[in-house]
Amino acid sequence: MLDETNTEPMEQANPQLPTQPTPSQAHKATPPRNAGRIMQWVTVVLSVIALLLSIVANLRVSTIQNGTGNSASAPSSDGTSASSGSDTKAMKKTGKKTEVKTVEYTAAEGSVLEGDYAPYDSVNFHLKLVKLEVTGTKATLTSEVTNNGTDSDSTSFLTRAFQNGQQTGIGTIITDGQIQAGYMATVTTEFDVKDATQPISLEIELSYDQKLQIEYSPQN
User: What is the 3-state secondary structure of the chain?
Assistant: First the structure.
């Protein structure tokens, strides 16, 4: 005898029911709650660091431009150090120009200060030493050359300077072009010396066998 009360058909086996995600799948699909805030804080921190680095760089540039930074020295061509930056400014403010004094020399008493070069009647020059001055290590001799010949001509006289028995310089008393007969020209000659406080001996060749030799001393 059949049970008529169970008249509904039996449910099909293995019905397809909606699947629930596993715990691991649910964890992957749902982002962390604080991830957004963490990214925001990282961005803020990086921005602050970049701002601080920019401020430090600007302060460094400003310090160098104002001359308060350290200056560097580079070797110059002569092996010395050439200062730059604030050192150069300090040198310009404190540097003083050293004044070089001109010292006038006088010839020893009894010295012969003039002579003649007269190889021919038409060639006759008279040389007279007028003044000797020294500035630093440069001596200047002033002379007068008179043409006592009959023709216009030029001439020159070799001059050597000595101090303490050693030759210090050499120059030439030479006329600037020809001097007319009966005229006189003023000539300046320069040569080197070692010390403006020491006596100077001059040797001037009038001819191959005639010389003027004069001892000069600096005036006090």
Answer: CCCCCCCCCCCCCCCCCCCCCCHHHHHHHCCCCCHHHHHHHHHHHHHHHHHHHHHHHHHHHHHHHCCCCCCCEEECCCCCEEECCHHHHHHHHHCCCCCCCEEEEEECCCCCCEEEECCCCCCCEEEEEEEEEEECCEEEEEEEEEECCCCCECCEEEEEEEECCEEEEEEEEECCCCECCCCEEEEEEEEECCCCCCCEEEEEEEECCEEEEEEEEECC
